[in-house]
Amino acid sequence: MEIKIVAIEIPQDCNIIIGQSHFIKTVEDLHEVMVTNSSQVKFGLAFCEASGPCLIRVSGNDESLQEIAQKNAVAIAAGHSFVILMKDAYPINFLNAIKQSPEVCNIYCATANPVEVIVVETEQGRGIIGVVDGFSPRTVESPEDVKARKDFLRKIGYKE
User: Distance between CA 121 and CA 90 in Å, rounded?
Assistant: First the structure.
């Protein structure tokens, strides 16, 4: 067994969701989740099939994000994993619907931070062990940091 670290490409002003599912219909269902939850989202998604022809299946409504999602899926190359890149929307608006999709088993991350995917490779194939999402904390927030956090959440419409 070999453990590898795969750095993920996330374009500026984009977010990413990385997860695991179990069925070829994942591509269609995740595409539907994205377009039914937001009319403005631009996205690309790629799904690594783990049986049959073992293809990387790609969909979306933005060609450049589809290409980068595909590039990330090729780099991860773990069976039944998926990558969704999105622009003009936040993962929080899609996560519940994605998790409710019958074939979705696990969400590894939903972020705009730099991401590294930790992959294990065996003779059979590859699997995702986990992810490194962003950076380690530097300190505990101060009262000023609490105020800044709450002000930010109000600014983007997530807190009154």
Answer: 31
The length of the chain, given as a count of residues: 160
Question: For 39-91, what is each residue's pLDDT tens digit?
Answer: 899 999 999 999 999 999 999 999 999 999 999 999 999 999 999 999 999 99
Task: Using alpha carbons, list the distances in angstroms from residue 32 to 13, 100, 103, 160.
Answer: 22, 12, 13, 30
Rounded to an integer, what distance in angstroms lies between the CA atom of residue 21 and that of residue 79?
9
Residue owning tokens 């933005």: 62
Beta-bridge partner residues of 21: 104
pLDDT value for 96: 95
Nearest residue to 49 (alpha-carbon basis) of 27, 71, 67: 27
d(CA 107, CA 98): 9
| Residues forming beta bridges with residue 117, ordered by sequence position | 6, 131
In this structure, what token pair is assigned to residue 133?
A: 């999402």
The tokens of 18 are what? Answer: 């990385």
